[in-house]
Amino acid sequence: MEVNQFDDKAERALALLLEKFWILRLEEPETYQLIREREKVLKRYVDDKLGFDLIVHQHFIKLEKIPVEPKSWMGIQDFQEPRDYAMFCCALAFTENRSVDEQFLLSDICEEIKDLYPGEFPLDWTNYNHRRSLVRVIKMLEKVTILKSVEGEIDRFAMDAEQEVLYETTVYARYFMRSYPRDLFEYETTEEILASEWERHEADERRKRVYRKLFISPVVHREGEDDPDFAYIRNFRNRLREDIEEHTQFRLEVFKNAALLVADERKQELSLFPDQKAIMDVALHMASYLRSQDTYQPDELGTIRISRIALEEVVTEVRGIYGTGWSKHYRESTIASMTNELVDWLWDWEMLDVEPVTEAYIIKPLFGRATGHYPKDFLAREGETHEQES
């Protein structure tokens, strides 16, 4: 049954498409069917507003999400080195040339990756770090269902290069990479690849850029006095707000230096701030502290510049005030390690940047939207608990 109206189920389907890399029919048959039934209205909306392609295949459904500009958090979080990505691409080349359900040994893909690897220095499977890279790559291929383990475990390869595992390729192996407007070898830089994406959207590029930024990133910050994307949001905020609230579960909030989509209800399928990670307590309390201090005043773009030493001093102060209720890990961590973790986390949420020359931290306006306080009687109750424990 095909539905021609953008109803609540189409709204949920759009949220799932934006959140997931793809929906596999075998693993999520109900979600697959939901999207199939609303395929027409979904395709029309994502093409008109974002310029994205919705690919509906008999085995999977995938929304090709291409950002306006790449961010670090968009990478594969399990990867640790550029080498991991290079090896991953070599592995994809290997699997794309295999038939569906064709079986092969780990040593086969090791040999192929080694031959294809473009690095300045060749791969050496006697090198523990190279083997660990391969383990991360293979696990990612399994995670996205490109490979399926038949016999054996990849973790053993990290300790012993002679270990074998039997794999088979899946039907999805040839569809992981997206298609490009031209042959990949015609591009020399990633900037050229991103620029070519707009060749088919010249007439309404600004609107689609804005929608992509709002839907893919945590926030759209005003980058200067002359920021055409942010100016578009400011000028058309009412129209944007009406459309977004009609078709999604988000609300558009626009401030002087930031625009973002907000969810009023916590949905399991969404990546939301704040989540349940313990680092959230540290971050929310730090936001409250900075808000209360006259020392740290934002500039015209709403940013606060702070040195590493000053940031560690802030973290020390914040732990002294709020640390009683933090997890044991953060109560006992060194200030340096806790600051590192906080910086990484704020970077991923686009709440912090690093100034290239001075390496000062730039706290962005989105962080000013966050705050966290204990209930009024919390510290009293914590004191009673510690007295009973002692």
Automatic annotation (TrEMBL):
Lineage top rank: taxon: Bacteria
Q: Which InterPro entries match?
A: CHP02678
Q: Pfam families under this entry?
A: DUF2398
Which NCBIfam families does the UniProt entry name for this protein? TIGR02678 family protein (TIGR02678)
Q: Report what the protein is called.
A: TIGR02678 family protein
- Source taxonomy lineage? Bacteria, Bacillati, Bacillota, Bacilli, Bacillales
